[in-house]
Amino acid sequence: MFLNTASPRRSIPINTNLQGARRRQPRELLHTSTAQEQEWSSGVDGRGGQRARTQMPVSSVGEDRAVLLGFAMMAFSVLMFFVVGMTVVKPYVNSNWEEEASCVLLQADVLEEWVDCRGVSTVPCLRVTVNLTDSNQRAFLHLDEESVLLAPECFYVPKCQMDRAELQQEVLKVKNSLDTQLGSTSSCVTDPARHPGDVILSRKYTFKKALYALLWPCLMLGGGALLVGFVKLTQRLAHLSSEMCSDAAVGWLTSRYTRGKLYGILRVSSVQSPS
After folding, report:
1. Which of 73, 72, 76, 69 is nearest to 231 (CA)?
2. Of 125, 196, 230, 259, which residue is 20 to 30 A from 190 by alpha carbon distance?
3. Cβ atoms of residues 161 and 117 within 8 Å
4. What is the pLDDT of residue 264?
């Protein structure tokens, strides 16, 4: 009798503890799923903030210096274009020395009256006369188009010096060299419209020289533009790659949260089904 009366009394706490454990287990699962949801939401918010931060273009010190160098190159090329245009391109465009002719060297003599040399001193003038075979006209020979404007009657003018004896000797050397070529024929360039009585041996400003002078500012401008373009392209590619990485991370967190939530629901239903 004592065994039969004691056994029910001892089984009652055991059954109560099992029922309480079964009731607490779904609560713990729900609490775990809620914690996972909060963690996922915080993770998504953190990724979202990071994504918003990655959308802002961040450039390094090297990229900033490269961009500044590119803009400096382009600005310097514009200055070079201005200088080349004034010193080479403009004289070539305004030049009308285009007609070629054959010239026969007639005589070379030194003028008695010396010409002014930049307002500092006077220098002797060597005048050379040629005959145009096409028109049979006489004209003064010059080295290039600039010498026509500086000294209209002179073929050769020495550099400005204070020693008159050295200037005289230098001009006489050139005259003696030309005297050995009297009667020879050479090609020359004429400008009948503006300078009918003058001819030049060669043009100082030609099309090839103008293109060669414009080559360097063009290269400078193109190099600066390419440098800036490459830096901007790398920044854009880095920005796109960061966006793709942030989108992939958000998708991974979403799939992880979905799997965890489904697993928690299945565990709750499996625990509650035996009761």
Report:
1. 69
2. 125
3. no
4. 60
